[in-house]
Structure to design on (361 residues):
């Protein structure tokens, strides 16, 4: 029976340590094939947002290109792309799919010593061990004792191979590289030579820092922020009320939106049959209402300008409206409101520049 090695990761970006680790696992198990399994953009984005640098996500296509370049000289290695299209891909399912490719093989999952808890959870929930094997890299401590004292893992001890980390991987991490992402030559020793020129192509302006939700100190960016907006001679309590009212061409109905509570505006709008042509006009209507909101409220206009060059994302967990915003679990959505705000911000800057130029003449 042949052995197959599977190693997942963000690979954001891939490091020389990634290559050395999977090669060490393959050598230790005398494996025939090794798969590097990059996560999806959605998974990566969620992970990076958690650590406070959600903007530093290398595009999936670029990560795949880097991985392919890194493994080009080792015919045993492959890149498995199955998880890149799955926002919620789970390890057991990936292992099952690899097993289907190699029905006669023993499939081994690569894990660090710090992943014993994960192995225990996978085994308890999915009978991961002994269906599959685990190659665990010891990083000090008493790994054998930790396994023996864990009932789930000790019962599957024959499915766990403990090996030593390869030499030369200490201190190498994707995190360390990201600190110099736009100056990769300064961390060239952490990179495979074939990855370095691909990293050199990345530009800081393509990775702007972000506001990913219109709440708390950034709540003023949201349409439901309580501030008066005068639209077509009616005073509304927020931009959302004005926008929802625009679905109707009946002045009486529109005034009802002006009087309803802010939190009820969208609900009332969903119950209103849009007038003919509204769907085709809605983006232009939104653009006009958002401009009026900030023009009529100078403090908010200054706050918008103060966001500088931050990329504005109208995001929320489980967001259903992915036309105006982004679902920050699946990281899908058109973010039309965010784009409108950024375009408006730039328009305000140009207006200020023109005004200042005229005053100087």
């Amino acid at each position: 029976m042949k052995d197959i090695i599977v190693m997942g990761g963000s690979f954001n970006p891939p490091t020389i340590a990634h290559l050395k680790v999977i090669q060490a696992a393959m050598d230790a198990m005398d494996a025939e094939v090794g798969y590097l399994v990059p996560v999806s953009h959605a998974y990566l984005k969620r992970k990076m947002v958690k650590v406070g640098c959600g903007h530093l996500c290398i595009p999936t296509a670029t990560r795949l290109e880097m991985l392919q370049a890194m493994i080009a000289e080792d015919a045993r290695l492959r890149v498995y792309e199955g998880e890149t299209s799955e926002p919620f891909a789970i390890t057991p399912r990936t292992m099952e799919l690899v097993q289907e490719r190699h029905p006669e093989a023993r499939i081994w999952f690569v894990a660090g010593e710090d992943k014993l808890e994960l192995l225990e959870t996978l085994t308890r929930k999915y009978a991961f061990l002994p269906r599959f094997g685990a190659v665990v890299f010891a990083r000090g401590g008493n790994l054998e004792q930790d396994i023996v004292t864990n009932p789930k893992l000790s019962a599957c001890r024959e499915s766990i191979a403990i090996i030593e980390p390869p030499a030369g991987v200490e201190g190498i991490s994707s995190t360390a590289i990201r600190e110099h992402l736009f100056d990769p030559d300064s961390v060239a020793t952490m990179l495979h030579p074939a990855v370095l020129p691909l990293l050199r192509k990345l530009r800081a302006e393509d990775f702007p820092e972000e506001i990913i939700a219109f709440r708390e100190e950034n709540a003023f960016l949201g349409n439901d922020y309580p501030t008066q907006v005068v639209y077509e001679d009616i005073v509304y309590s927020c931009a959302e009320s004005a926008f929802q009212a625009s679905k109707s061409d009946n002045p009486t109905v529109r005034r009802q939106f002006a009087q309803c509570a802010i939190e009820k505006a969208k609900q009332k709008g969903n119950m209103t049959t849009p007038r003919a042509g509204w769907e085709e006009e809605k983006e232009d209507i939104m653009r006009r209402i958002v401009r009026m909101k900030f023009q009529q409220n100078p403090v908010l206009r200054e706050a918008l300008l103060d966001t500088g060059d931050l990329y504005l994302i109208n995001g929320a967990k489980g967001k259903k409206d992915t036309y105006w915003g982004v679902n920050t679990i699946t990281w899908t959505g058109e973010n039309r409101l965010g784009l409108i705000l950024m375009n408006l911000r730039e328009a305000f800057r140009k207006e200020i520049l023109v005004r200042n130029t005229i005053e100087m003449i």
Remarks:
- The two ends are 84 Å apart (CA to CA).
- The CA atoms of residues 161 and 285 lie 62 Å apart.
- The mean pLDDT is 95.
- The first helix runs from residue 16 to 29.
